[in-house]
Write a structure and sequence with these properties.
- The complex is a heterodimer of chains A (506) and B (447).
- Chain A is 26% helix and 33% strand.
- Chain A contains 13 helices and 24 strands.
- In chain A, strands 5, 6, 8, 9, 11, 12, 14, 16, 17, 19, 21 and 23 form a twelve-stranded mixed sheet that branches. A ten-stranded mixed sheet of chain A has the order 4-3-7-10-13-15-18-20-22-24, covered by helices on one side.
- Chain A is globular, with a radius of gyration of 22 Å.
- Chain B contains eleven helices and 19 strands.
- In chain B, a hairpin with a 2-residue loop joins strand 1 (99-104) and strand 2.
- Chain B is globular, with a radius of gyration of 21 Å.
- The termini of chain B are far apart.
- The chains are: A alpha/beta (506), B alpha/beta (447).
Chain lengths: 506, 447
């Protein structure tokens, strides 16, 4: 028991205020007036210089949103959100059309430096590719390393601030830009695919997002192209009382491949911040999209005050034959997480995957999982979910696997495991499995346990101390998922897990 | 704007039944019984019949499935005899050596029952009689065993229950034969039967209970039956159900069980009948060191809809629960298994596992499964599994390669599949009866 006892104590000691990204950047911003009405929607659209059709699309969504009510079914509890008490648009002032990074507010660059994620990626890469010293962030974003592997789009509050490596991507024909730019530059693609996966009125938060989304990333990989580098978007909420509503759309045309990473952080604030994003993925014939998330929004302090409400709709559509969409997520942040990255397996032989690590501590509440909707023939899906609950948190896996009448030969394997650390937390599993034809073969298994005494004893008998043993076991527990992360994120994630469960992993 | 929610035809029918029939229901005139009914009616009427947007009833939408409310079964004009009961049960179960209690529609019929050998072991009464002058133990038991506040079907049962039995088995009683409670419906016209059994098993008693639900005629039936069972410390209880009501029936049963300390509770439900069946099982551990095994076998064909919903509540530490269900689904039959295991905050050292498996014999069959874990204690071992698929081609090939013709090979594999569940029945004569009935079912399959 001793080791576990110690783990529990460490977890108790571990204050969520140790949140590393809890700084706030003091830069001038342009904000829309507080509250939400038609004028705000017009204001946002105007700020973005959007064409009339986009404005109309937003207004339609807003009208629908007015008729909807907040969903209540998830296993999370929070005070009612006053949607009129939020800012729906905030943008760093100096970013209105920067031509080069020299024009970007130095404070902002400093922020990115502090955030560390892009920096760290670059460092790792630099190490690999003979760059001895980590260099200044300015240089990196400036594109000095033409051979670097990760292109980054950074979204600060509501606005995409900078997108790197655009030129190089353009050579391959890849479009990687902010959503607002895409609306202006590639209206045909946007019109064709926007809301084709997550309909405007899909759910309360998706509809809200449709009305007020401020920015996000847009990716288009043309037919037969294997995207030459990892694409990455970095999201940060900075302003107080702002909601962040980004919208991401990724289209992989026939036979193409792309790997996309996203990272998220927010400053420490006493009030709760709302983040309601929509992510849509479209994979056409033989295309593959790999989407990885490291979500580390501010989780609130040790008493459960503050933190981000992360209400996100993510869905991928395997529209073409033999297409594949793979979601990998590491969820360590947010006061409340409510998200279900899903795959619609429409094309015959398409494949959906979901790998998830969700760690909750303090007063965090996580209700996350996936949906695998088998519509095409011989489609297959795989779900590996690892939930770790500590402190006073609640960690729920909620998932749906369904096979349509015509989805003959559908195949699913699901494994969701939960690990509990301490007796104040809860771990829940709510899977729905719906087979509507005989040849669908579904397997589901789930386990819940604490770190076993036997495992600890085994490790300790081999000379490890208790903390090392716990670290080893927890790492082993999540290994299946970590391995699915792109190399650049792997190191980041292992570190993040360390922070989230500080103490319990040494 | 506050428009009243529209009632479905069935809901309106139940409302009329309650208003019109309330004064004729057993216990009328007794303040306690009336209070119980009125409170239950309030609960039911505020929500109505459960529908697909009620999470627990997601897959069994009663607003849609119950098109109207049938009138309560009238008192029988003609007398039934033992042969009628045997006919309804089928030859296999009719021959079972047991203490037999017969309930026709909702009325306990001592003259059809065989209670020899139970003298001094226990006490059997008609619930209707008890409600008129309720004993203290009944007041403390009825609706109290594992209250399900939000379940409107149980509330409807409390409001409209028109019969059933109370069965009390004394401490340390060991019964050598199963107690067979036969629920037979004899109504000649479409009817509803709402009944409740209250069963109390004494400390260290050892009992095997079999509840059969069968129908004599092909008339449409709506059954709403609730059995509340309380198992005393150290008791050993087998609780088995057999359901083979006619194909025009809707069958709603709820078992609410509370286990004391060191109890061994083994429940099994074998369902082959009814157009719509919902089997609810609620088990609460109230004492440490108990074990609950709830298993079941469902065989469905045609348009049958069979839903087994279980809630196992580990309210105390150190208990073990197992849920094991197997379904064979043919035609466009739909099988549902929902099982929720709750481990409360202090219920350390809980060991809980559940498994649901469906074998789909036809392209149109459907299986929905929701194995749910809700865990608030850390020192636990819990797991669940769910699988569905069709008859394994490789196994078929293996058998056929050994010269077994396809239909027999198929039947063999199906029998083996469902047999794995039936094996969980400890009582040998009942297990053999179920095995034989499952084989008969398969023959009807033409497999």
């Amino acid at each position: 028991m001793a080791a576990v006892q110690e783990t529990v104590e460490h977890v108790k000691e571990m204050e969520v205020d140790k949140y590393k990204y809890g700084f706030e950047t003091d830069i001038e911003t342009v904000k829309a007036p507080k509250g939400l009405n038609e004028d705000i929607v017009r204001f946002i659209s105007d700020k973005k210089g959007e064409p009339e059709w986009m404005l109309q699309w937003r207004l339609d969504a807003f009208e629908r949103w007015l008729t909807m009510t907040e969903p209540k079914w998830s296993r999370v509890h929070y005070p009612k959100i006053d949607f009129q008490d939020l800012y729906y648009y905030a943008a760093p002032k100096s970013t209105e059309g920067p031509k080069s990074l020299d024009e970007v507010d130095p404070e902002l660059l400093e922020t990115y430096k502090k955030l560390g994620i892009p920096l760290k990626e670059q460092e790792i890469l630099a190490g690999v590719r003979k760059q001895g010293e980590p260099s200044e962030l300015e240089d990196e974003i400036g594109g000095e390393y033409g051979s670097g592997k990760v292109a980054i789009d950074a979204v600060f509050d509501s606005v995409s601030v900078v997108t790197t490596f655009k030129k190089e991507l353009a050579k391959a024909g890849v479009i990687f830009c902010s959503m607002s730019e895409a609306v202006r530059e590639h209206p045909d693609l946007v019109k064709k695919y926007l809301s084709s996966v997550v309909p405007v009125s899909d759910n309360f938060y998706a509809t809200l997002n449709s009305a007020v989304f401020s920015d996000g990333s847009f990716v288009y990989i043309p037919e037969g192209v294997r995207c030459p580098m990892e694409l990455s978007t970095y999201f940060r909420i900075n302003e107080a009382q702002t909601g962040q509503f980004e919208r991401t759309l990724i289209i992989a045309d026939k036979g193409s491949y792309v790997s996309y990473l996203e990272g998220c952080t927010a400053p420490m604030r006493d009030e709760n911040q709302l983040h309601a994003a929509v992510v849509e993925l479209v994979a056409l014939d033989d295309a593959e999209i790999k989407y990885s998330t490291v979500q580390n929004w501010y989780p609130g302090n040790k008493d459960g005050v503050g933190g981000v409400y992360n209400f996100v709709t993510k869905r991928g559509d395997c529209r073409g034959k033999n297409s594949k969409i793979s979601w990998t997520q590491v969820e360590t942040g947010s006061a409340i997480t409510w998200k279900y990255p899903s795959c619609i397996l429409r094309g015959d032989n398409s494949i959906g995957e979901f790998y998830s690590i969700a760690i909750s501590n303090g007063y965090q509440q996580v209700d996350s999982g996936t949906k695998m909707i088998h519509l095409g023939k011989n489609t297959s899906s795989r779900i590996i979910s690892k939930g770790i609950a500590a402190g006073k948190s609640d960690n729920t896996y909620r998932g749906l696997v369904s096979a349509h009448r015509k989805a003959t030969g559908a195949r699913n394997f699901t494994a969701c495991d939960s690990l509990l650390i301490g007796d104040q937390c809860g771990a829940h599993t709510i899977p729905y499995i719906e087979a509507k034809n005989a040849s669908a073969q579904f397997e589901h298994e789930a386990t819940t346990s604490k770190i076993s005494e036997d495992q600890l004893f085994y490790c300790q008998a081999r000379g490890m101390n208790e903390e090392e043993a716990v670290a080893l076991i927890v790492n082993g527990f999540v290994r299946d998922v970590i391995q699915k992360l792109p190399m650049e994120f792997m190191a980041e994630t292992q570190r993040l897990i360390g922070i989230s469960l500080e103490g319990s992993v040494g | 704007m506050a428009a009243e929610i529209l009632k479905t035809k069935a809901e309106q029918g139940f409302a009329d039944q309650f208003t019109a029939g309330k004064s004729a229901l057993p216990g009328a005139g007794n303040a306690w019984a009336e209070g119980l009914r009125d409170a239950a009616w309030e609960t039911y009427a505020s929500v109505g019949l459960p529908h697909a947007r009620v999470e627990e009833w997601k897959y069994t939408d009663l607003r849609r499935l119950l098109s109207e409310a049938y009138p309560p079964a009238p008192a029988l004009a003609e007398a039934l005899n033992g042969d009628d009961v045997a006919k309804a049960l089928g030859s296999v179960l009719a021959g079972l050596e047991c203490h037999r209690l017969v309930i026709v529609d909702s009325q306990f019929r001592p003259e059809l029952s065989d209670l020899g050998g139970l003298e001094g072991m226990g006490d059997i009464q008609s619930l209707g009689d008890q409600l008129s002058s309720p004993a203290d133990w009944l007041k403390q038991t009825l609706t109290q065993i594992t209250p399900q506040q939000n379940d409107t079907v149980i509330a409807l049962n409390t409001a409209l229950m028109s019969g059933g039995i109370t069965l009390r088995i004394g401490d340390n009683v060991v019964l050598d034969k199963p107690v067979h409670i036969v629920h037979v419906v004899a109504a000649k016209e479409a009817a509803s039967v709402t009944l409740r059994n209250v069963i109390s098993i004494g400390a260290a008693a050892k009992v095997c209970l079999l509840e059969s639900y069968v129908s004599l005629a092909d008339t449409p039936l709506q059954r709403n039956a609730v059995s509340e069972l309380i198992a005393g410390d150290g008791s050993d209880v087998q609780h088995i159900k057999f359901q083979n009501e006619n194909m025009d029936s809707s069958h709603l049963t709820s078992w609410m069980t509370r286990l004391g300390a060191d109890v061994t509770y083994k429940a099994f439900q074998f369902s082959i009948g009814a157009a719509v069946a919902r089997n609810q099982i609620f088990v609460t551990f109230a004492g440490e060191g108990s074990t609950s095994h709830v298993s079941g076998a469902v065989m469905g064909r045609g348009k049958q809809h069979n839903d087994t919903t279980m809630v196992i509540d580990h309210a105390v530490p150190g208990c073990e629960s197992r849920e094991f269900n197997k379904l064979v689904l043919d035609g466009s039959a739909r099988g549902v298994v929902q099982c929720k295991a709750i481990v409360r905050k202090h219920a350390q050292k809980t060991d809980g596992h559940q498994m649901a498996q469906a074998l789909m014999l036809s392209e149109m069959a459907e299986f929905d499964s929701k194995p749910e874990l809700e865990i608030f204690a850390d020192d636990v071992v819990c797991g669940h599994g769910s699988t569905s698929g069709q008859v394994d081609d490789e196994l078929m090939f293996y058998l056929r390669a050994r010269g077994i013709p396809e239909p027999q090979a198929r039947a063999l594999l199906i029998a083996a599949f469902v047999g794995e569940a039936i094996e969980k029945v400890s009582s040998e004569p009942i297990r053999e009866a179920f095995r034989s009935m499952s084989e008969t079912w398969l023959e009807g399959e033409g497999a």
